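Ticket reopened. Same input as before:
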Amino acid sequence: MANGASLLQTAAGAVLAGLSRAVTGVRPIWAGTGPNGRQRIYFANHASHGDFILVSTCLTPPERARTAAVAGADYWNAGVARRFVAGRLLRTVLVERNWVERTADPMQVMLSALDAGQSLIFFPEGTRNMTEEPLLRFRSGLYNLACARPDVELVPCWIENMSRVLPKGAVLPIPLLCRVVFGTPVALEEGEDRKVFLERARNALLTLAPNKDGTRR
Amino acid sequence: MSDDTTRLFLGLVAVLTTASLVAGVLSFRSPTPLPATLENLNARIKAWWVMVAGISVAFLFGTGGVILLFAFVSFAALREYVTLTNTRLADRWTLLGMFLIIVPTQYYLIWIDWYGLYSIFIPVYCFLAMPALTAIRGDTSRFLERVSEQQWGIMLSVYCISHVPALVTLPIPGNEGRGLLLIAFLIATVQGSDVLQYIFGKLFGRHKIAPNVSPSKTWEGLIGGIVSASALGAGLYWLTPFSPVEAGVLAGLACIMGFFGGLVASAIKRDRGVKDWGHLIEGHGGMLDRADSLVFAAPVFFHIVRYAWT
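Engineering reply: fixed in the latest deploy. New output:
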């Protein structure tokens, strides 16, 4: 399989999924879509470096095998251990966020991953959200991907509680129950403006969040 | 394995088989798609098979297996509880300590049978250490609320539940080597009374006890549950060092405590706006949805037996 995962990567994915289930008891809530085998971009809120593990845990094993997370090269290329984890174990699609020094165009990197048949886990806020706001403004990446590859399904995924389990800088996770809510896919409409689309996609993700008073649907 | 263990096991299998058959016939006769109540009943019975299988395996490994099983129950219950509380970044070390230090220590103390320490480790030492640790981190926002929630959580999910396996350590004269059966008696009567209250409530429930807290708890269900659970307890006296009458009284008491446990758990869930504690057990909800009655019943049962029989 050209675009498939190696045995090591499949095993690493299964071990991580087992671990994240043991700690967070994570369960997918399919609210508006289900696993359907189509190539997808899962776009999610981002507050913890464990986020992509949680999303990939919720996928079916074949879908997990072809799904890679898009992550910042500056973080994951720092040090041998991180590079091994990101490159060899998890097959992360690394994009360079610092546009002054970068050597590879992030769009090209992501598009070639999509063209190789991979699904992506994508954080459209561009960075981890450390504010009290539930969701930051979306950067343009999601719009650019939607324009370039209109056949790929854009699935909003709300990750609940992971920032409490593994906040920025933490190594040991606190066991808390997590959920990932998968919503109705969003599609770019004919001639839709960038800002309008990004706002619509952001709202599609926000509606999956629990209510303000903490109650869950 | 003793003859009594085998008898208990066969009895449980017979009860579950009957339940599965009845539910199967009901499902077969009912129009599809099945009504929600029946769907839930099927899921619950299926989960009971899994739970009984899990408990049986733990019993096969003896005291160590049962202690490990309840350490896991505490872990799962605490995880569900903490998920619903207000936690801040400054609570991190306290929370990690609850999961990584307090749970293993409490169950280790039961394993080495140090009654003097396991009965005060959490209510005295953890009670003082947890707020101290939280205060050192310096975040005073909602301090009292955070500390109280943590302490109550550790009492309910760890301290109270740990009194179930602690029963095995009680040196009851004439009951040597039969401590596990006493645990089986407590679990069977408390869980049985949950089921019986549910059945009596569904069949005859009219007058709600606390409609604001739980619409499913009725006087008819409670009284029917106490009477039938007492009968169940008396019928299971051969598992215990008690006479049939004593067994019946203790089972009735465990049933009343279990009722309060369920009521308090419902009040917490209502306060936090959730229906179930989690989703660990299909059809039942989370671990605490199943264990809430045991939380209240276990320490009371433990101390009565310890006081009157040892």
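Chain A has nine helices and seven strands. Residues 7-206 of chain A form a domain with the Glycerol-3-phosphate (1)-acyltransferase fold (CATH 3.40.1130.10). Please confirm and we'll close it.
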